[in-house]
Design brief:
Elements lengths: L1 E3 L2 H14 L5 E3 L11 E7 L7 H13 L1 E12 L21 H5 L4 E12 L3 E11 L6
Parallel strand pairs: 1-2, 3-4
Antiparallel strand pairs: 4-6, 5-6
C-alpha cells in the first residue's frame, strides 16, 4: 500500500504499479489524520515527517515502528537540524530532527544503514537529510 495526499501522485503510483506488475495499491489520504491499520514487511517514509509539527511527526514515527512486522524493515528519511532551506515549509508546521534522532528512536532494531547527506538548495541554502534503514527484531517466544 502507498499513501499520498496528492490525487495526481496516487493515480501515477497505481498506473505505474499496474504497468510494472508490482502489487502496490495507492490511496489518497490526509496523512496527519490517517491511521496505519495493518502491519507491513516494509514501511518507507521519504521526505514526509518534516512537514508536520514535531509531536505529530513523532506520533507518525511511532506508528511506523509499531506497524512493521518482526524482521521487517523501516526506511525513513527526514530533514535534520542544520538545514537552511525553509522555503518549502509552513512556518508553523515543520519538524527538523536531531542528527542522530532516528537511530535513537529505533533502539533495539538492527540498523542496516544510517547516513547523513547534504544537498544544495535554492538561494544558496542547503538541505541536510538523515536516512535510516532498520530491521525490526524477531519476536521472542
Amino acid at each position: 500500500m502507498a499513501v499520498d495526499a496528492s490525487p495526481t501522485a496516487v493515480a501515477r503510483l497505481n498506473k505505474d504499479a499496474e504497468r510494472e506488475g508490482v502489487p502496490v495499491r495507492a490511496i489518497q489520504a490526509d496523512i496527519e489524520s490517517w491511521a496505519i491499520e495493518e502491519s507491513y514487511d516494509t514501511i518507507v517514509v521519504i521526505g514526509l515527517l518534516m512537514f508536520f509539527r514535531h509531536e505529530t511527526a513523532l506520533k507518525l514515527l511511532t506508528a511506523i515502528r509499531e506497524h512493521v512486522k518482526p524482521e521487517g524493515r523501516a526506511i525513513v528519511n527526514v530533514l535534520i537540524e542544520g538545514t537552511t532551506y525553509f522555503g518549502m515549509f509552513d512556518p508553523d508546521n515543520y519538524c527538523l530532527f536531531r542528527r542522530n534522532e532516528l537511530e535513537e528512536r529505533f533502539v533495539g532494531w538492527s540498523v542496516l544503514k544510517s547516513r547523513t547527506q547534504t544537498f544544495p538548495a535554492p538561494e544558496g541554502t542547503r538541505k541536510d537529510f538523515s536516512t535510516l534503514i532498520a530491521e525490526k527484531p524477531r519476536q521472542k517466544n
